[in-house]
Amino acid sequence: MQMLELFQTEWCPASRRVRQRLTELGLDYVNRQVPVEREVRTALRDAIGADTIPALRLENGSAIVGEENILAFLGEQFAEPLGAEAHQQKAAKARRRSIVGNEQLAPIAADVKRRLGDVVAKVGRTNGRL
Hints:
The chain is built from four helices and four strands. By secondary structure, it is an alpha+beta fold. Strands 2-1-3-4 form a four-stranded mixed beta sheet, sandwiched between helices.
């Protein structure tokens, strides 16, 4: 049996939103990692005829390229399951926690940067000897 195949990268926000929607819909799929550089995306071009992500290859072999097109297709073809709202709430909570965590780390990062600058300045004043 063929499965949906999502061609994507972890750093791509559009890919993340498509992965999240597939999860909310309870759809199984194969995740295919795509190289960052477009010029080396030969496997993607061979599979779907394009080098743009995200791209979803359907069970019949056809492909849908781009977040908006994929989300529209999913909305037309698949009903919202009972558990979708729970997935959406959990994802929103995780994103809020991540944002709060980053905000809490900002003062620590600033202090580390300041201390590193002090060390670099001291090394410069002593010709490399601490």
